[in-house]
Design brief:
Layout (H helix, E strand, L loop, with lengths): L1 H26 L10 H23 L8 H21 L2 H21 L2
Length: about 110
Amino acid sequence: MFILLWIIALSAAGTFLIRYLPMRWQEKGVGHGWMHGPVGRALDAIGPAAIVALIVVSCGSMLGAPVSARDGAALTLGLIAVAVGKRFLRSIAGATLAGVLIYGLAVWGFSLLP
């Protein structure tokens, strides 16, 4: 039971930080929002926070288990899709969706291999 409480506490802290830190970086001028004020900073922070959350979820399945080359390849393909999506779609939402789609297809495709 004690371990479960630690897992819940660490998950809560991680979830808070992946949403809080991008907004703090926006306040310090690390990024430039398209809209001024707290709403603009919050909207600008959603995309990077979503991508980090997807990476954490993807890596979470690798904890405590032997990591195969297929797991790493699926994660790498997803990250490449995010970069390519951002470059060509010029939208963080489109880039995030591209990364999710490619990661999901890679995991599904690798599961079909012997």
